[in-house]
Write a structure and sequence with these properties.
Chain B: It is a multi-pass membrane protein. The complex is a heterotrimer. Chain A is mainly α. Chain A is built from 10 helices and 2 strands. Chain A has a single domain, classed as MetI-like fold. The longest helix of chain A has about 35 residues. By secondary structure, chain B is an all-alpha fold. The chains are: A mainly alpha, B mainly alpha, C alpha/beta. Chains in contact: A-B, A-C, B-C.
Amino acid sequence: MNRNMKNRLFYISIGLAVTICSLILLFLFGIIIWNGLPAISLDFLTNSSTNFGADGGIVYQIFGSILLILFAALICLPIALGTAIYKSEYLKNEILHKILNTLIYSLNGIPSIIFGIFGLIFFVNLLNMGISWIVGSIILSIMILPTVTLSTYQAINSIPTVYRESSSALGLNKWQVIVQVLLPQGFHGAVTGLLIGIARAIGETAPIMFIATAFSGVELPSSFLEPVSTLPTHILALAQQATNPVALQNAWGASLVLVMLVIIFSISALFIRLRHQSISKS
Amino acid sequence: MLGSTNNIGKYYVYGSTLISAFIVFLIFSILLVNSWEAVTTIGLDLFNLNWNPATREFGIWSMLFGTLVVTFIALLIAVPLGVATAIFTSEILPSTYRIVVKSLLELLAGIPSIIFGLIGIAFFSIWIQNIFDLQSGRTILTAGILLSIMILPTIITLTDDAFNNIPSKYRETAKGLGLYKYEIIKEVLLPIAKPDLKGAILLAFGRALGETMAVMLVIGSIDKIPDPIYNWLSPGQTITSKLGREIAETSFGSVHFSAMIFMGLLLFIIVLILTIISQNSLKSNGRLYE
Amino acid sequence: MAEKALKPMLSVVEKTQDKIIQIKDLQIWINESRILNNITLSIPKNEITCIIGPSGSGKSTLIRSINRINDEVPGISTQGEIIFNGLSINNKNIDLAQLRTQIGMVFQKPCVFPKSIKENVLFGIPHLKKISKLEKFQIAEENLKAVSLWKEVAHRLHDKAISLSLGQQQRLCIARTLAIKPEVILLDEPTSSLDPISARAIEDMMVRLKKKYTIIFVTHNLQQAKRIADNLVFICDGKLIEQGPASKMLSCPSNPETKAYVTDEYCEC
């Protein structure tokens, strides 16, 4: 077999792989949109679900999902900011830096179901908080902590030393330099990280399904310690009644809404990142 | 006054770093403490074949087997497909289109796993059922195929980055010596990108091991090793699907619960080791965005 | 009558025989900007042709189009014709890998592969033919000797090539190109990132190598061109200003711009 033939064969196999991947992509988005669109209507988005979710809309599920990620973001932000500032401005020791990095990456790598079990043991049982949405928010905030921390760290750490030196020379102490100079310039990193984290957290099912949610009969919670219903757990409940066509259609509708939410958060993150790149360039 | 805000600020950042750093330890110790009862009362019988809470048999071997086989199938499909596609996006596709491909991949990576589960139930398991004429399409193979699609974006993105980080002088020099494209890729680029590729595959491996929702919905959830063991068209169980299905129905504090947590601990340790190794071989930071 | 007609024809044939490469009306655009403008020139066989000109004049683009390594530059478009050994290389169906084994190239910055010294010398060969271990050693020795590197590395052929100095790396790159036995060697400012002594070593080597190879050498260092060139091609702002034997171009160039450049290294085009 000559070299030219081998080269052709190589191109053919690459082409085949690319075709398969494109078809997969097309198929996935195709069926999510194709099956989801007919299910979506104003009624679907504004009504509560009935008949164990098989009928009715998903308004409380949307609300529950938003509530969970909103509080997850609120809990995560201060800790992530503090950690990022420490990592960038206080930590000088190489070895400690490596250890902290390893811990952050490890936290990021932990499978989501493990977070669920941890929440179940620690918050629901040991701290006796019961199945409640705030536990879900806490667990999701832990899950997105690495993303937000590293994104903030990169934004703060990339601010040139000149800024630190010239503001110190004006008589600002370290904390004032951080609050008045570094944070305003690095805050976009935290926002980007939060949006990326939220885009991931809103679709998570495994960590919250046995600590924060109930599958049916849930409306607006009146305290921190009540379960809510969310989009992903709703889809899970409906998927398990796959033989019922109405339930399945509602599952597709909820899926499309969920994917749209994910895309909205991802695109806003991308937008902020791009805008900041163009600002720092000009 | 000035000094005190400085100190409060310092305590705040120290405090938040301590919290961030100790969460991993907290999770680990919670898992360890809660699996202790299973380890002491069941001991090595944990690695038996049978899982039957009624007879107090807690053998996790079939879950472990299911986890490994499903992940193996996923990597078997996704690695060649992903690496070949990454070669296309980094070496053949004009760089102007790269941003489009990257965005599409990010979209694909953003699809929540529960939706993959739904797609798996509604399509993949039906296809497998019809193609192989089975009673049920919820099999180990179905889970493996679904999982391969889910880890595909990770492999493509990381491999594409690995190839893109290779300076173009290597390509030009090899071209100048009269090598064909496949020879350049095989003999110059692949060896250089090898550590990064290893990191990418390990990371995908870790992700696949820990994936729960999609696998749980399509694997069939039977705690058995298929007979014969290469019959992947039979239902099975993974650690994650077992935990997802059963933990909520287990009473807290029982041996049964403890045995479940032991599986979680095992998964935790394996994935942690994989994450640390892959981070060391990937070297680049900021890889959390997938 | 017949004789008269024959004579110019014969001289044309003669000319094409000792001109290994001919470039006709070459124009190269990258996106909207024209990099090369109607270049027509010919390269004589077994001589050193130096392409000189200020930086940014298009020298590199010109030399890189001779083995079509430019092809994959984004937004590039080429017009005109380059003829090598009587065949046009701009043909779409031409086997580029084949072409590049006949027209070898050495780049500005030495680029060794992350392999041993010996593997680097032999890098291009296994694709061309199967060779035995003994042959491999002989080829490595022969080509490393040709670039005067043999004495320095003979005892450590299995060391990583990256452990060599930059000057040694560049000579290794030349040895690697020689090993695939090209007819023409293109060198794109091969000494610009090297120290003067290594640069001198490479210049001396070029003079030795021209018996066996046709050498095209891009440089922005006029002194270097004066030392080694048999022919000069002067390019400025994408235009060919003048070409001819080095002795003539350096002593009495016909073009005032060439004169300004070779005396003052100054160019106003």
